[in-house]
Amino acid sequence: MNKLLASVGIAALATVGLAACASDPSETSSASGALTVKATDSDCTVSASKLDAGPSTFKVTNAGSKVTEFYVYADGDRIMGEVENVGPGLTRNLIVDLPKGTYEGACKPGMIGDGIRQTLTVTGEATAPLSDSEELTAAADSYARYVKSQSDTLVVKTTEFVDAVKAGDVEGAKKLFPIARTYWERIEPVAEQFGDLDPITDGREPDAKAEGVDFTGWHRIEKQLWVEGNTEGMDPYADQLLSNVKQIVAKGQDAPLTALELAQGSKGLLDEVATGKITGEEDEFSHTDLWDFKANIEGSQAAISSLRPVLIDQDPDLVKDIDAKFAALDTELNQYQDKSTGEWTFYDQLTEQQIKQLSDSVAALSEPISKVAAVVAKSA
User: Fold this and answer.
1) Could you tell me where the DSSP H helices lie in the chain?
2) Contact 57/94 with Cβ under 8 angstroms?
């Protein structure tokens, strides 16, 4: 899931030089099949600018030298779908269910900035809208209940963390930091819908520097606690963190994920582990990455559980494969948790071989999870 800070507002977009570099796409419709997206370090070409309403598949190929991402944005930079960490020479698919309207497709070479954008116009009515499927509606409703339970506790635990920070209770804040973030990481696909709210809440310091903006959120306070050993000057950051979390929770309840979005989100959570947690760069000051790691896995599993009736009906063998690989990853990961306290081994205490074994287990699970969105799109 994306940790990169995006500039705020449409006015900022107009100042981004890259945005002017998007190639003129074909005016053909998407009805003929998957759209191709050719991404380079300075260009982003989607094979069609006019799409039919309903599920669209974007086949994103990185022909550049930098790792890139591809996003589909609605008004206000709400993220309708994203595919991250597309390395040079790689191709990855993104399936997005788009109703009639105007959107933007954006490539982000180097995974920074507002991206190289072009307008996508969606017309007509979907033959069988995914949202009309009884099974998919039930799946989305089930996941919404999960998100509600996690969101409620997220607000409670974030409030406790913020109170400890503002009281100058360093040890109390350190103890609460990974606990509160557990609830955040389980539902991060919800947060990532809302433009800049996710990155200013959970962005990392190198990303803030690359964007030339203030380093804020969870990790700003984390640095102060573990590097400086105090909470001096953190009150404004703590207040902002709690405000952002409350906004995300409220927005998430007003705009719950669709079944297709939660299928993509399940894969996104694993990508988050594979490209962030596994490197130790996520919680670089506290080394509490395994708390986040486990929460991402649990969030992915909750999304798949919501979709389970659909998946069993459409592809029971895929469900068996996913179940087996979730179990294998749990076995590999759970050996690093103290069952009596619930605490996890600090990430800098793992050996390279232990990290590799975790990485291999994530990669093995990611492969069948990547097929879920296509199954959901076909099930309407």
Assistant:
1) 10-14, 134-166, 170-186, 188-191, 197-202, 205-211, 218-223, 235-254, 259-275, 289-314, 316-334, 352-369, 372-378
2) yes
DSSP 8-state symbol, 290: H
Question: 101 with 151, same domain?
Answer: no
The first and second tokens of residue 281, run together, are 């760069």
Q: Which two tokens stand for residue 194?
A: 């809302």
Same structural domain for residues 108 and 146? Answer: no
- Of the residues 127, 158, 190, which one is the last residue of a structural domain? 127
d(CA 212, CA 79): 22
Question: Domain limits at 35?
Answer: 10-127
Contact 81, 264 (CB under 8 A): yes
Instruction: Say how far apart CA 52 and CA 96 lie, in whole Å.
Output: 12
Looking at residue 6, what is its pLDDT? Answer: 35
Q: Under a CB-based contact definition with an 8 Å cutoff, are residues 7 and 16 in contact? A: yes
For residue 273, the model assigns a pLDDT of 85
E strand or H helix at 347: none
Distance CA 105, CA 107 (A): 7
What residue has token string 């360093």? 170
* pLDDT digit string, tens, across residues 348-363: 999 999 999 999 999 9
CA distance 65 to 287: 30
Do 188 and 329 reside in the same domain of the chain?
yes
Q: Which two tokens stand for residue 284?
A: 């670089």
Strand-pair partners of 284: none
What is the DSSP-derived secondary structure letter of residue 78?
Answer: B
Regarding whether 229 and 341 lie in a shared domain, the answer is: yes
Same domain, 213 and 258: yes
CA distance 232 to 276: 28
pLDDT greater than 80 at residue 288: yes
Domain total of the chain: 2
CA-CA distance, 271 to 179, in Å (whole number)? 21
Closest CA relative to residue 77, chosen from 189, 185, 196:
196
| Global pTM value | 0.76
Clarify whether residues 182 and 115 are in a common domain: no
DSSP 117-164: EEEEEEES--SS-GGG-HHHHHHHHHHHHHHHHHHHHHHHHHHHHHHH
Residue 252 in any domain: the answer is yes
Residue type present at position 175: K
